[in-house]
Structure formats: C-alpha cells, structure tokens
Amino acid sequence: MNSDIAIKVTNLKKYYPEHKAVNGISFEVGKGEIFALLGPNGAGKTTTVEILEGHRDRTSGEVSVLGYDPKLNAPEFRESIGIVLQETNLDPYLKVEEIMTQFAGFYKNPRNISELISITGLDSFRNYRYRKLSGGQKRRLDVAIGLIGDPELLFLDEPTTGFDPSARRDAWDMISELKNLGKTILLTTHYMEEAEVLADRFALMNNGFIGKIGTMDELRNSKNSTIKFDYNGNLDMIPENIREICSITNKKITIQSNMPTQTLSTLTLWALNENIDLQNLSVQAQSLEEIFLESIKESKTP
User: Fold this and answer.
1) Above pLDDT 90, what percent of the chain?
2) Which DSSP symbol is given to 12?
3) Has residue 14 got a pLDDT over 90?
4) Are 143 and 88 in contact (CB under 8 A)?
C-alpha cells in the first residue's frame, strides 16, 4: 500500500440476514488528514468504523489500516490506533491524572501524561475528580486517553455531542492541533458545520453506499451557487439567459447557477451597459449541509 495512505477500503461489504449494512464501499484516507464520514442514522457509518477498528468482522472486501488488516487484531495494530468513543464510563471518584495514569499502564511506551494533559487543555483540572468535570472537560479527557498510546490514527466519534457553542469551538481548536501534531483523524459527526470546519475531505454515506466523496471544492463542483439581488426595473430588460434560470419574489431575483463566475460576468456587463445598480448582490456556494441533504435525497430517488 502507498506509504502516504493511512486507510484503504476496497469494495467493503457487511451483510446481515435482514439487511445490507455496508454495500460495497471504497475510499482512502491519507496520512495526516482529517477525514469525515457522514451520514444519517442507519447509513452504515458505525458498522464501517467498527470494521476499521477491528471490532466487527466484514462479509467481504479489502481493508488496510496503517498497513494492517484490522480483523487480525495484531498487537501492533491496536497500539497504532486511538479510539475516542461517543460515551465512556469512567470511575467518577478518580482524579484526571489518576485516570490517565491508569490507562497509561495498558501501553508499553505511553506518552508523557503531563504533556497530554497540557495538549488537551486540562492543566487546571488534573486534580479534579471525574464527576466534577463539565461535559466539555470530560470530552477532552476522552481525547487525552485516546492519545496515551501515541497513535498514528485517531477515531473520533461525535466529539462534541451535547456541547454548548463555546465548548464546541474550543474542542475544534483542540482537534485542529492534533492534526498539527501529525495525527490522522477519522471523524464521525452529526454537526455539518463541525465537519466543514475540521475535515480535509468528506464521504457522504447513506443506505450502505457512499454517494459522494471529496474536498468541499470537489463536492461543490457542478453544484449550484445562489446569486441574489434586488431589482426594481423592467423584468424584460434582464438578459434572456439569466431570466431562464432565475426566480422572482417581491422584486428579489434569485439565480441558481453551476457556473457562478460566468453568470456574474453576464449580470455585471448587463448592469454596466444599462446603468443598473444590482442592489444587495450576494453569492453563496452550497454548504456541506445542503450537499449532504441533497445527497440523501438523490440516494432515495429510484
């Protein structure tokens, strides 16, 4: 396998008697990349991630994680990955540093505990008992535990569920710092804004299939951007090729275009020639959430 590839999945399938959870998906994750696996409940995300982590057998297909086949569950494989689950059950009466020390005992060469506490922003809470931590602080501790073995690859499952907006953004900063440390991260999240902020690439999954995969620019390719402006003049004056793709509501013009640069050029040239002011002109590319919802809708269309 290419030494720059952390995860390589080829035609992965996981079938149950009653349904096909994963139905022939293929994708790669580069080393040092944050890769977001997105999809609604029941899409097959959890099954896919559990196969990658070595916690679930596959029906067929090829899977390589850091050069290992996860189903063999080799000790070297287990030490090369870190897993941050959505929920963890820790002793409520142990202190942060005590919990870290306990988990460090599971590894041959654990990372320095004080260093990890600092990286995850827990310096001020090292002597707090677990039950006294806030939700955000507990999540930071989860990440610190996932990093104890100094893994090359970190699986992050819903890292900010239940966080308030401020705590969520603090967590985003921490996750971005992990990338700066050279970690590869496979992220699953229900928050589209979170994925868009953090991830380098995305896979949109539904009904066991991956419908779309790529960077934001690649996902937006050939997708409509929305151009809006206010117009009080004669509608017949608008160029015909613009009228064909626009909608008009209360003198507000909305245009959906998959070639926004060319459309804007036509609009601007027309406005200059006719001495027209395009009031409140705005251009908005599709958000990840819009692309995600569109992908789900397409996957349901026969």
Assistant:
1) 50
2) E
3) yes
4) no
Per the rule left: phi > 0, alpha: psi between -120 and 50, beta: everything else, 155 is: beta
DSSP 8-state assignment for residue 13: E
Place of tokens 């569950």: 73
Say how far apart CA 251 and CA 254 lie, in whole Å.
10
What distance lies between CA 261 and its chain's CA centroid?
Answer: 28
**Sequence ranges of the domains in the chain:** 5-219, 224-284
Section 21-43 average pLDDT: 95
Element (H, E) at 293: helix 288-300
Residue 301 confidence (pLDDT) above 60? no
CATH number (3.90.1530, 3.30.70, 2.60.40, 3.40.50) of 224-284 reads 3.30.70
User: Closest by alpha carbon to 252, among 272, 235, 271, 269?
Assistant: 235
Q: Which amino acid is at 236?
A: D
Q: Give yes or no on whether 5-219 and 224-284 have one common fold.
A: no
Residue type, 125: F
Cβ–Cβ under 8 Å, residues 122 and 141: yes
If one looks up domain 5-219 in CATH, what number appears?
3.40.50.300
The single-letter code of the amino acid at 48 is T
DSSP for 230-271, written as a single string: E--S-GGGS-HHHHTTEEEETTEEEEEES-HHHHHHHHHHHH
Angle between helices 135-147 and 165-180 (to 10 degrees): 10
Q: How does strand 225-230 pair with strand 184-188?
A: unpaired
> What average pLDDT does this structure show over 280-293?
86
Q: What is the mean pLDDT of residues 163-182?
A: 87
68-100 pLDDT, tens per residue?
999 998 889 998 999 988 778 899 999 999 999
